[in-house]
Q: What sequence folds into this?
């Protein structure tokens, strides 16, 4: 079980959280003009990084808020968490 | 290859069983082949076997970073069935199910296929509606699947508790041709048969790069044991597919999640069939050794660690204890995890890629063991002919761009 550091509530056990997948995935800015490839990228294609991964979590059974985390998917070790809207730390492969 | 038979066993018994040779050679990598398969799981080994057997390509190597069958092939709960919703899926999985029926004879290797019936429990009105829809769709596609009342489900599997439980059993979908097989034997059987046809099986050989010619074509791979050249490379690396495809600059719509399983201490034969409960995440059968083989749901997050959280396995055990109260005092012996490659529509990809000469077989997620022989067969076809077999033609990479999903995810509404 992971121990996850909610930026608002502090460290809590994993079952309090919902995973939200890769972070910083931006919806096409002009949806009507986006190509099929761009839509597929946005909807279906994730980096699935083996290594440092910037990802979203939601403290669903706590404060309810979304935040981002940086985790190494080779070890499941968290390098840190940061608030939505903040830029990813420079280490992240985003 | 020394053929296995009752007579051979008897004759070699007279020599103290000391005259058996290794079942496949410990091959050293050669500089070049006609085709390379990356990943020594069932899908990769099987593809190499069918390349040699059906397409006359004997100059083939399987490159495995660890030991063959050490990936999901050797980590899964071996449930085999073909009652998927969409015609494309039912056709592909049923192609595999037909292979299972005489695979042991074809490979001269006892894969212990046991069609003891797979029963999927419905616990909610939604489950019941979805399963009935599957039953009807399967019937129309010529695939057996039948709806059972709770009493019929209990008659088929007497240990089942259909009484007063948190998520009552409202019925079940039963595929009688479904069952289990011995996972290791599938890897070993294909390896031995492929080796006998000249295929090199190269273990401890991790692919670290994909070599491309100036025109973009695949030329081979870089490995921890040197460069190996080949005009065709088929990738069947399950949870690590994204990593390898990235080496070739090809994006794949996969996410890799841990999936865990566990076995109990061995007990006498008590459990007659396979029971799956997608809704409360419990999968169970009894191995011929007597261990109960129990599967859990996936962990919540992507990972490459081959381990997951204890709360996931204990959740599965809680469901098992409620469904089968007689197992409450059993002890669990071992637990482990595998990394499964999940696609957005929960259907596999068996296809050509934008890189000429590079083929991929992935996205089997939590349920590709059952498909092993059929998948390997059509993958070999795709590699040998540079075009898909009619059965895997819909399972392209481009379907995500074109919107032609084969949405078994929506069909099941839960992991399967
Ligand atoms: C716990 C669990 C339970 C499951 N239960 C079921 C079930 O009941 N029924 C079912 O149908 N399916 C089930 N599955 C899914 C099933 O196991 C897989 O879909 C299937 O076995 C995949 O086979 P494969 O040959 O594609 O992959 P694998 O057997 O994983 O083989 C891929 C191989 O590629 C190798 N590899 C990776 N990277 C490299 C590299 N860079 N270089 C060289 N080699 C590399 C790996 O070491 C591995 O051996 C389960 C999976 C798990 C983990
Ligand atoms: Zn919080």
A:
């Amino acid at each position: 079980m992971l121990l996850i550091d909610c930026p608002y509530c502090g460290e809590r056990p994993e079952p309090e959280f919902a995973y939200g997948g890769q972070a910083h995935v931006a919806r096409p800015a002009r949806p009507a003009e986006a190509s099929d490839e761009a839509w597929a990228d946005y909807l279906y294609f994730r980096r699935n990084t083996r290594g440092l991964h910037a990802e979203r979590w939601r403290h669903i059974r706590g404060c309810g808020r979304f935040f981002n985390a940086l985790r190494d998917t080779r070890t499941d070790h968290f390098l840190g968490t940061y608030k939505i809207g903040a830029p990813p730390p420079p280490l992240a492969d985003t | 290859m020394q053929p296995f038979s009752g007579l051979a066993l008897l004759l070699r018994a007279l020599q103290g069983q000391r005259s058996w040779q290794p079942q496949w050679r410990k091959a050293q990598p050669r500089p070049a082949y006609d085709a390379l398969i990356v990943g020594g799981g069932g899908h990769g080994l099987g593809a190499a076997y069918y390349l040699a057997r059906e397409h006359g390509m004997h100059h083939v190597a399987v490159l495995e970073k660890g030991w063959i069958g050490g990936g999901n092939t050797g980590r899964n709960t071996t449930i085999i069935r073909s009652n998927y919703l969409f015609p494309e899926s039912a056709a592909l999985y049923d192609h595999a199910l037909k292979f299972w029926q005489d695979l042991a004879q074809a490979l001269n290797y006892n894969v212990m296929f046991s069609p003891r019936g797979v029963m999927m429990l419905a616990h909610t009105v939604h489950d019941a509606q979805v399963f009935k829809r599957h039953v009807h769709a399967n019937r129309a596609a010529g695939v057996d699947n039948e709806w059972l009342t709770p009493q019929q489900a209990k008659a088929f599997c007497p240990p089942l508790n259909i009484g007063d439980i948190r998520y009552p059993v409202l019925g079940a979908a039963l595929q009688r041709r479904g069952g289990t097989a011995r996972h290791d034997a599938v890897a070993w059987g294909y390896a031995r048969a492929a080796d006998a046809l000249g295929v090199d099986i190269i273990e401890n050989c991790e692919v670290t790069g994909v070599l491309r010619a100036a025109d973009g074509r695949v030329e081979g791979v870089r490995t921890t044991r040197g460069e190996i050249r080949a005009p065709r490379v088929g990738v069947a690396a399950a949870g690590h597919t994204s990593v390898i495809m990235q080496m070739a600059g090809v994006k794949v719509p996969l996410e890799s999640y841990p999936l865990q399983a566990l076995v109990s201490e061995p007990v006498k034969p008590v459990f007659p069939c396979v029971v799956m409960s997608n809704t409360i995440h419990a999968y169970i059968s009894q191995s011929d050794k007597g261990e109960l083989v129990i599967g859990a749901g996936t962990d919540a997050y992507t990972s490459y660690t081959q381990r997951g959280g204890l709360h996931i396995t204990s959740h599965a055990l809680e469901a098992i204890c409620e469904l089968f109260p007689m197992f409450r005092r059993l002890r669990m012996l071992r637990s482990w995890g595998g990394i499964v490659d999940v696609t957005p529509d929960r259907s596999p990809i068996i296809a050509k890629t934008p890189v000429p000469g590079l083929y991929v077989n992935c996205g089997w997620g939590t349920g590709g063991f059952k498909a092993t022989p059929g998948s390997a067969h059509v993958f070999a076809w795709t590699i040998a002919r540079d075009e898909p077999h009619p059965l895997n033609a819909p399972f392209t990479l481009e379907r995500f761009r074109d919107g032609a999903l084969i949405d078994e995810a929506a069909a099941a509404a839960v992991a399967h």
Remarks:
- The domain at 24-78+183-253+345-402 of chain B is CATH 3.50.50.60 (FAD/NAD(P)-binding domain).
